């Protein structure tokens, strides 16, 4: 029998740890789970566990990520588009509510099923990231629910309505986590359906946008990292394609909405999500975004998924290629045309100013 390579052995060890950790968290929950017992279940040493995961929190998030990635990969698209935004929101809610635990489930398994983060996020950075992710999830759902093609402009109040629906669903999950069997999923789905017609004013423009420095014109050849893919569609992504690329740390994801609203209707907009803490904050971002996209794939046919492309850059290859170290507060944006960076912006409002920059390629000789 051929000997396993080091990479193969590490992958086998990681898989064994995840199986053991899932069993431990299902039985004891996050708070009472022990890394020593996880190592014992996996027939490994404590050191072998820590060589793959930085701690119990990172391991718990990895277990949840593994579950949502499996669900996303198994998701089947619907036969056709929903008849209306209300029907779409009701269908999305029914898919999302399948996670609610039943009365006979153990507390630990129920917490895993609802992707519970209760008592898990201990640092300020992860709590900030979660708040930003909630806003980003609302943007993705609003783009899918929008009238007409998924690339249509956001209607007034669209993101707020989507956020309200997600608040309803997460609230139902929080109640069911502690009192399984509470709440009728069909009633909740009907309530979500009616939220599509709720009259809400649009979000005001962030006050700093009018004062954001304009994007800097450029004519720089751009060879982005390869091997990237869009989390929404699963397709490969070439960041040298014409359009706007916005690189956002997990603490600045709400700025994606500014770029989307500022871009021209035919602009391809890509959000690259980065972090300075891939073990925990990065896994949190992956968990939430993959979980949402799994539900979107089961609700909308491929041609109605949001046109916004989302790249999870766990290792920070994109900001590194631009000369910026990946952090939770990274905010930089590019306008790309003919494989050239034609505009580059950093700091607050970067996505907004890059999206507003003309698409024309600057003449390197300075001609108008």
Helices, strands, pairings?
Elements: H1 6-32, H2 35-41, H3 46-50, H4 56-74, H5 85-96, H6 107-113, H7 124-145, H8 158-178, H9 185-195, E1 216-221, E2 243-249, H10 256-262, E3 269-274, H11 278-299, E4 309-312, H12 317-321, E5 331-337, E6 340-346, H13 350-356
Parallel strand pairs: 2-3, 3-4
Antiparallel strand pairs: 1-6, 2-5, 5-6
Helix pairs in contact: 1-2, 1-4, 1-6, 4-11, 5-9, 5-11, 7-8, 7-11, 10-13
CATH top level of the domain at 209-356 is Alpha Beta
Low-pLDDT sequence parts: none
Determine the N-to-C terminus distance: 68 Å
Percent of residues in helical segments? 40-55%
SSE pattern, N- to C-terminal: HHHHHHHHHEEHEHEHEEH
Largest sheet: 6 strands, mixed
Percent in strands:
5-15%
Strand line-up of the largest beta sheet: 1-6-5-2-3-4
**Helix-strand category:** alpha/beta
CATH topology of the domain at 209-356: Glutaredoxin
Rg of Cα set: 22 Å
Mean pLDDT: 90
**CATH architectural label of the domain at 209-356:** 3-Layer(aba) Sandwich
Protein name: TetR family transcriptional regulator
InterPro entries: Homeodomain-like_sf, HTH-type_TetR-like_transc_reg, HTH_TetR
Domain HTH tetR-type: 11-71
Region (Disordered): 345-368
